[in-house]
Every structure is written in structure tokens, then in C-alpha cells.
Design goal:
90 residues, Alpha-Beta Plaits, five-stranded mixed beta sheet, 2 helices
């Protein structure tokens, strides 16, 4: 069963290729969605996939790329009200 979540990652996560690495991981795990920088310095990920695939991405988000310093990861349910195709940096 497909599930969609919004993941908000805090810490030193902008300017360290977090979005690019997230996109690569999401594609590897067959996850649909988007990733974007927020004005307050956090990164927002919208991800849709089977629970087991989402768990892999969420686990990775707690570490991020080697250049990042993650201090918090918040995972919220998100409504599935549109179709996501691929995984894009926005």
C-alpha cells in the first residue's frame, strides 16, 4: 500500500548537496516525490512509496550526505491528492 509523507530535515542541510543526494537515494529506493530547500534553512521532502521503501529513505535522512549535519528529522503524514512522477528537485 502506498503512503505519502512529508519529511522535514533540520541542521546543516543546505549547501551540502542534500537535495541531490536525496534525489539519488529516492530513485534508488523507487520513491516518487520532491525535495526542496525551505527559506528557514531546512529541507522538505515529499515522498510516496511502500512503507518499507519510505523507512529506508527516512533512516538515510537522519544521516544525510557526509557533508551534512542533521539535528532533527520530522515525519508527517501527507494526503495523496495528486500523482507524483519521478523524484524531482524543486
Amino acid at each position: 500500500m502506498q503512503r505519502r509523507v512529508k519529511i522535514v530535515v533540520s541542521g546543516r542541510v543546505q549547501g551540502v548537496y542534500f537535495r541531490m543526494f536525496t534525489q539519488n537515494k529516492a530513485k534508488h529506493f523507487a520513491i516518487q516525490g520532491t525535495v526542496r530547500n525551505l527559506p528557514d534553512g531546512r529541507v522538505e521532502i515529499i515522498a510516496e512509496a511502500e512503507q518499507s521503501q519510505l523507512d529506508k529513505l527516512i533512516k538515510w535522512c537522519h544521516r544525510g550526505p557526509i557533508t551534512a549535519r542533521v539535528t532533527n528529522v520530522e515525519v508527517l503524514e501527507a494526503p495523496i491528492n495528486d500523482v507524483l512522477e519521478g523524484f524531482k528537485i524543486v
